[in-house]
UniProtKB/TrEMBL annotation:
The lineage of its organism: Bacteria, Bacillati, Actinomycetota, Actinomycetes, Kitasatosporales. PANTHER family: ARGININE-BINDING EXTRACELLULAR PROTEIN ARTP (PTHR35936:SF17), MEMBRANE-BOUND LYTIC MUREIN TRANSGLYCOSYLASE F (PTHR35936). PROSITE patterns: PROKAR_LIPOPROTEIN. It comes from Streptomyces zinciresistens K42. This is Arginine/ornithine binding protein. InterPro entries: Solute-binding_3/MltF_N (IPR001638). Residues 66-306 form the Solute-binding protein family 3/N-terminal domain. Keywords: Signal.
Length: 318
């Protein structure tokens, strides 16, 4: 969903790293290190035992034992459904490790990326964790397209760094190396991401009567399908997502990365500004798993070491 957030606008997400993208299903309390999935496929993670940071959480969340997570679960390898329908990826694994520290379940609930902040604002979710780039616009509740304030804004607990990449069908459109090479061509992107914002900004720079045709989709998998069928010259996603698609789609025969990644920025866990206690508890949990090595295990598992951070930060995006 590395736009804005590099999955960065008030509704932008960017998803950097080396290669290795809503219904409440009920709380599942875990007693080990693994994750569990309920019958509907909602991801849960955490443990109520041996939770050294449980007292840092708001009492209401401690009582429920659940942190409801809004997420666009179609952004492999950050969060996606595996063959059995279980929610897996970088974010769910990090949430599982944090859940052990806090003694709660992180319950992932699927939604389109551009609706996550709204869901957080309406208290449908406690947090949004979805390769969402921490940006000043999002912190301040500013719509990047209009420059107008659309809400209170959110706070972020930053946990990863990512940039944006372009990819094409393998062996085709070899003249595309940079964003400026897209003038006169079509690109497919996910709606509400930094990729979409970059494409719009670049289209305004095109000369000679050319522009960039932009086709936006609800999720990145739809954009990939369109590109795979030859419906566009290129696609763009956060680097980990683009790299994962290049490695896995068609056994590595469908796509190729072109040019360098751009707009590197932090991914953040979004929290309502009024919920500072939850924000600070999440920061403490993230710092704890960085210190005890669980964070590095997750990062290495998914082959995204280049995007790792050394400590949690609050509102580090610009």
């Amino acid at each position: 969903m590395t736009a804005s957030s590099t999955r960065r606008t008030a509704a932008v997400r960017s998803r950097f790293a080396a290669v290795g993208s809503i219904a409440v299903a009920g709380a599942l309390i875990l007693t080990g290190c693994g994750d569990q999935t309920d019958d509907s496929g909602s991801q849960s993670s955490g443990s109520k035992s041996a939770a050294p940071l449980a007292d840092k959480l708001p009492q209401a969340i401690r009582d429920k034992g659940v942190i409801k997570v809004g997420s666009d679960i179609a952004y492999a390898p950050v969060e996606f459904k595996d063959g059995s329908g279980k929610t897996v990826g970088i974010d769910p694994d990090l949430a599982a490790a944090m859940g052990k520290q806090l003694g709660v379940t992180f319950q992932f609930e699927n939604g389109t990326f551009d609706s996550l902040i709204t869901g957080l604002r309406s208290k449908r979710y406690d947090i949004a964790m979805s390769a969402m780039t921490d940006t000043k616009d999002r912190q301040d509740g500013i719509d990047a397209d209009t420059g107008k304030k659309v809400g209170e804004g959110v706070d972020f607990v930053d946990y990863f760094t990512a940039g944006v990449s372009i990819y094409t069908q393998k062996g085709k459109n070899t003249d595309i190396k940079t964003w400026s090479d897209l003038c006169g061509k079509k690109i497919v992107v996910q709606r509400g991401t930094v990729s979409e914002d970059l494409a719009k900004a670049e289209a305004k720079k095109c000369t000679g009567g050319k522009t960039i045709a932009i086709e936006s989709f609800d999720n990145d998998q739809q954009a990939q399908t369109r590109l795979r069928a030859g419906g566009a010259a290129a696609g763009s996603s956060d680097f980990p997502v683009a790299a994962y698609a290049v490695k896995t789609s068609g056994g590595g025969n469908d796509f190729q990365l072109v040019g360098d990644q751009v707009e590197a920025a932090p991914y953040g866990i979004a929290v309502a500004k009024s919920n500072t206690q939850l924000r600070d508890a999440l920061k403490a949990a993230l710092d704890a798993i960085i210190a005890n090595g669980e964070y590095d295990k997750v990062i290495k598992k998914w082959g995204v070491e280049d995007g790792a951070v050394k400590e949690a930060a609050v509102n580090g995006g610009k």
